[in-house]
Design goal:
Length: about 250
């Protein structure tokens, strides 16, 4: 049954109009009144978490109305909240990273501009890019069965993001993906168990500068390595996520 993101409180028996994006998708799929779909609200309303059956009741030229049916308290999320802070890769690779990280179960994604970043945006262009990545995450959730849409945060410089972090606590881990001498294998850390919340910091093409790596270390980020091979920026971030969330 097709799944659609509907960021609104959901309740059995309610009649509601689908948001514009979901309505267009319904029309593209050529669904008709009487057809069944599945709705989820992305975890924005805990009272209606999980997912709901729904039936299409009206198809307009640009609007779609549905009646919400039975609720299913199903969650396909991991028990660990993993946050990814990444120096944005160039071209369309960030789209691919957001999509695959969502499929793996990432809790949030922080796009960062670093010294070696190729992609540098600000103002309206940055806002539009972040909105696009958020739509990529929504589509990935619709496809993979996830009911909690990861938040794609507004772009920041690495320095500003580090400055805004709260003090590191005992129940959260901070790791910096690194090829520098002295970085310990990630698997060694995972062998001691996984804490409730973890943040991965990964650089762009070329990695973080020595000054940036030192600033991250000062904020509690331990340098870890995935092995001797040099992975692309997006591949490294996703490999780390997969190892932790597996």
């Amino acid at each position: 049954m097709p799944r659609f993101y509907c960021p609104a409180p959901l309740a059995t028996g309610a009649l509601l109009d689908l948001p514009a994006g979901a309505a267009r998708h319904v029309q593209v799929l050529r669904l008709q009144p009487g057809d069944g779909i599945t709705l989820f609200n992305g975890g924005h309303d805990t009272a209606s978490a999980g997912e709901f059956d729904a039936t299409i009741t009206h198809m307009g030229r640009s609007d779609v109305q549905v009646q919400v049916g039975a609720h299913h308290a199903v969650e396909r999320e991991t028990s660990v909240a993993v946050h990814l802070a990444v120096g944005m890769p160039a071209n369309e690779r960030m789209d691919w990273l957001v999509e695959k990280a969502t499929e793996l179960g990432v809790a949030s994604i922080q796009p960062l501009m670093t010294e070696r970043s190729v992609l540098r945006l600000s103002g309206e262009r940055a806002e539009k890019k972040v909105a696009h990545w958020q739509s990529v995450a929504i589509a990935a959730c619709e496809q993979c069965g996830g009911n909690r849409v990861p938040r794609v945060w507004p772009m920041q410089t690495l320095a500003a993001w580090l400055q805004g972090l709260p003090p590191k606590g005992h129940h959260n881990a901070r790791w910096l993906l690194s090829l520098a001498d002295g970085a310990s294998p990630l698997r060694q850390h995972l062998a001691h168990g996984v804490v409730a919340s973890s943040t991965f910091l990964s650089g762009p093409e070329g990695g973080l500068s020595a000054v940036e790596a030192a600033a991250a270390a000062a904020c509690g980020f331990a340098p870890v390595t995935l092995g001797p091979r040099v992975l692309r920026a997006e591949t490294a971030a996703l490999t780390a996520l997969a190892r932790l969330l597996a």
